Structure formats: C-alpha cells, structure tokens
Amino acid sequence: GLSYAPKGHPREGLVVATEYGGHGTAGTPASGGARYVWLSLDYGRTWRTIFDLYATTQVINMHMHGVAYDPYDDRVLCTFGDGNGGQGSVSGLMACDNFTDPTPAWQWLYGPVTSATWQMTTILPMPGAVILGGDGAPPGIYRMTRAGHRQLRPPQTVLNYGGGTDTGYIGQGMFQAAPGQPVIICHEWAKNTPRAAALHVALDGDTFIEVWRDPNLVAWSGAFCIGPTATGKVVGWLKNDARFPSGKTYMRGDLILD
Fold it and tell me: Which of 122, 152, 183, 254 could form a Cys-Cys staple with 144, CB 3.0–4.6 A?
C-alpha cells in the first residue's frame, strides 16, 4: 500500500508505505512477514520505519493489509490481520498522531478483533468519513464517520458484496485521483469459482454506485482500477481471468455518473 499528502497540503511531500506479503511464523517473525510501515517526508527520497506489526501487537502470525495518510486529521492509519494457526491473531485499525517523532505512538481505533473472520484492508480517508475495504463477514466496504477532530465512530457496513454473505469477496482496491474526485472501488474474489467482477464509485463516503459489472460469470481472483483520467477514462485489470491464456484482462471505459 502507498499513500501521500495531497498537493498543496501543509504535509506535501509526505509518503507512507507498507508491504503485503507472507505471515510470520512461531519463533521467526521476520521470515516472510509483511510487518512494517515506512514514512518519507521528502517525496520518497529517504525513509524510516514508524510501525512494526509484531513488536506493537506481540502477535506474529499475521501481516499488514493497508496504510493511509489522513490529511483531514493529520495522522497515519494502518490495518492488518489474517492468521490463527494456534498462535492467535488480531485484526483492526490503528492510528499514529506523532508519526514524525523519534518514537511514534500507536493507538487502536477499532479492535483488537481476535478473529480472522472480520478484517479491514484498504483505507481511504474522505472529508466526512474514513472508508475501508473488508475481508470477512459481511464482505464489502465499511465506513467510520467522523465525529470531530481525530474522532471516528465505530465502523458500519455500507456496501455488501455477494448479498452480504459470500465471504470470498475482499475489498481489495480503492483509488482517488485527487481530493474531491470520485473514489473507484474494486474487489477481489478469493475462491476459484465463477463470480461476476464489478466496480463501484463512492462520491462522499455515504453514496456508493455500481458503475460496471461483468456480464459473464467466470473464475478470476483480483482486480484494480484507477481514474478518472483527465479525459474521464477509467482503466483497470483483472488477474487470473479464466477466459484468457495469459490470465489477464485489461479494461478501459468512460466514467459516467448520472
């Protein structure tokens, strides 16, 4: 995951990043574990670590999911989860307000949830709320409404995938070209059975519109989309698409919001 302060913001030049990889294992937390959040204050020229998942939670059988800089509350948010395997697991959302200090302090905004069946993934701050992708039950998109400066209400499900019961759907990707632009939302299908891929758009964190649905039920496993471009186009791709030998489908279309 990658997030940055908008152009013209007092924090312009700030970039935060995390990795998405394997879980740690008992006794060897660094083996394949995606565990860190990094911060740059100079457009990515130099970096330092501001979060270590295993050191903060004392649980190693999981990995990072997402990270975002919240320009409205001037804080860094991160999500993580997965895993049990007899070692325990925690999922949820954490925040850091003093991320430029030598020893950043992190706090729980939601969680810890000691189950791998309820998890947050992608994070996208908006003026009135923070919206988050979901990986669990119900599958879909969550909203945490702002209740004041650095105050968020508990998450509510605002968009269900698969009727709200099909946990193979994961809120994988959200993209916003700039503040005030529509948020393009896509999801991943984590099971090898035919399902219809779809794209949704969030206008304000409250209104979600389905703008495209694949007319075919096919096996696929992931999607990502960006836009709108300067000419109003949306471009994206599906991976592991069973219709094509390459497993890839590239898409382009106009974003029309009636």
Answer: 152
Which of 149, 109, 152 is closest to 129 using CA atoms?
A: 152
144-154 per-position pLDDT tens digit: 999 999 999 99
Distances 121 to 67, 97, 164 between C-alpha atoms, Å: 9, 20, 17
Q: What is the DSSP letter of 105?
A: -
Give dist(CA 20, CA 146) in Å, integer: 28
Q: Which helix (H) or strand (E) holds 57?
A: helix 53-57
- State both tokens at 20: 């998405």
Sign of the C-alpha dihedral computed for residues 240, 246, 252 and 253 taken in this order: negative
Report how far Cα 57 is from the mean position of its chain's Cα atoms. 20
Helix, strand, coil % in the chain, rounded to nearest 5: 5, 50, 50
Its pTM stands at 0.89
pLDDT (tens digit per residue) in 237-254: 888 788 888 888 888 888
